[in-house]
Amino acid sequence: MPGTAEQVEVGDELWFGTPPGWIELAAHDGDEAAIAWFDRLLAQTPDAFDDRTVADLRARFLQARGAVPRGGITSAGVLVTTTEADEITAWQFTLAVVDMPPSGDVNVMAVIERYLESDEGRRPLGADDFVETFQTDDGRDGVAVHTTAASEQPAEILANLPTADPGRLGVVHAAVRLNRPRSADHDRVLVLTAVCPRPYERLALAVVAASVVLSARLRDGDAAPLPGRVDLDATGAGRDR
After folding, report:
1. Using CB atoms within 10 A of its CB, is residue 110 exposed (0-12), middle (13-18) or buried (19+)?
2. 68 pLDDT above the threshold of 70
3. How far is CA 50 from CA 47, 53, 54, 56, 81, in A?
4. How far apart (Å, rounded) are the C-alpha atoms in residues 210 and 203?
5. How far is CA 162 from CA 74, 154, 155, in A?
6. Contact yes or no for 69/77 (Cβ under 8 A)
7. Residues 103-131 pLDDT 10s
8. pLDDT for 156-180, tens place per residue?
9. Which pTM was predicted?
10. Is 12-233 a domain of CATH 1.10.3470?
11. Contact assessment for residue 149 and residue 171, using Cβ atoms and an 8 Å cutoff
12. Where on the tree of life does the source sit, at the highest rank (predicted)?
């Protein structure tokens, strides 16, 4: 079924902190569970929408969920927010866990290139593009590529965000080596792709993307919950937090 989250590994769960307002598209156990979750989200502000608006929002949610690729995606989310100029915008995120062979060091840039099936990691950077490496608090390596891309569906983007620039969408690709739970015998890397409708939003988008990537953890399904506020168990579909 389109938009259904893939299990990372039997017995393992991917957990990450979600920013306020995150609308999860993929990590649900089918459309029925997804729409029930979305209805609970709308019910938090019962006076904000009339019945017609609720029906329209539900239809748009299912449409967006259906557009999530069938395979390879662990989580996909949309964040509706405002820019510094007080303009409404929508940022899209996809997260995938990529298996790596048990061979020691992981070249996270090579992981991004392989996952994207492109030369994103090798091509010359544009004037506004850059690459940065980082390390988590517990010493795991990561890399982020800040770039732009043209949309393959410009009319659809402009229909929803008339001020968007479909020829130069802001894009952040990030990858980080995940921790290894007791049940795992090999390394895995989390690959995140975040997209905003205008290049100047990319810096703010990168801040949110960084918080998602740096909070991501794998844990054994029967282990104690992770400390701190973790809002979404992306592979334990149907859980409310």
Report:
1. middle
2. yes
3. 8, 5, 6, 10, 21
4. 11
5. 30, 10, 9
6. no
7. 556 566 666 656 555 555 555 667 778 88
8. 888 777 788 888 899 999 988 888 7
9. 0.80
10. no
11. yes
12. Bacteria
